[in-house]
Amino acid sequence: MTSHSRRAPPVVTAAGLWSVAVMSLLLGSDAAAQTPVRSFAELQPLLKPGQSVIVTTDQGGKTAGEVVSILGNQLEIREGGTRYVFTEDAVRRIQHEDGTWNGSLIGIGVGVLLARAYVSKCRSTPFSERDSSCETAELSYIADPLLGWLVGALVDGLITKSLYVSPRPSAIALTPLVGRGRIGLAVTIQFQPGAR
After folding, report:
1. C-alpha dihedral (49, 194, 168, 73), degrees to nearest 10
2. When you count CB atoms within 10 A of the terminal residue's CB, does the N or C end of the chain come out lower?
3. CA-CA distances (angstroms) from residue 121 to 11, 115, 152?
4. Whole-angstrom Cα distance, residue 83 to residue 67?
5. Pair type for strands 91-96 and 82-87
6. Cα separation of 115 and 133, whole Å?
7. How many C-beta atoms lie closer than 10 Å to residue 31's C-beta?
8. Who contacts 158 (Cβ-Cβ below 8 Å, separation ≥6)?
9. Which of 62-76, 143-157, 161-175, 182-196 is least confident?
10. How does pLDDT run across 121-139, given as a tens digit for each residue?
């Protein structure tokens, strides 16, 4: 006679699954990210017409739109029916505007896994020991993927990838202020942002 011992199923927690999902989104974005280029010439092979980008100018203004063309030291994008042309000298940063579909899919997948683990836990618990939440466990097959879709889209929406960062250093400008009864100096400091 052989004795068979039943092995307890592994315990999967909601926090563990969500941690894996968020880390895979964040690490996946870093793995896919490349070092931003420092010239429009290097940028040309990376941009395709129709690609969504966010252009940040030296004055800090941001314009989101679709790439129309990049030729020489000029980038043309379209936002709605308006076209904008940016010269390399006027651009501080160009970022790729990525959709949130991949984060949504990861979130839905985590939600399904979480629901499956919860329902399995409820089904494997003897009926007399189940708590009242197990009565509606099957609803987690709807609620958890919906929540996962929302969280995945939100996290993915926070991730942007810099394609171009201006090589110009930070600048300091001094402007004399002279007026009736006053003498002063205005200092303007412009910092060059980091690569991400």
Report:
1. 0
2. N
3. 8, 10, 25
4. 10
5. unpaired
6. 13
7. 9
8. none
9. 182-196
10. 888 888 888 888 788 888 8
Burial class (CB in 10 A: 0-12, 13-18, 19+), 117: buried
User: What fold is seen in the domain 14-169?
Assistant: SH3 type barrels. (2.30.30)
Domain ranges of the chain: 14-169
Rounded alpha-carbon distances, angstroms, from residue 75 to 84, 134, 196: 8, 58, 21
**Among positive and negative, which fits the CA dihedral 164, 93, 96, 55?**
negative
Give pTM, 2 decimals: 0.53
* Span 169-183, pLDDT tens digits: 656 666 777 777 778
What the block records as the tokens of 19 is 């941690």
Distance CA 115, CA 170 (A): 51
Q: Are 45 and 65 in contact (CB under 8 A)?
A: no
52-73 mean pLDDT: 92
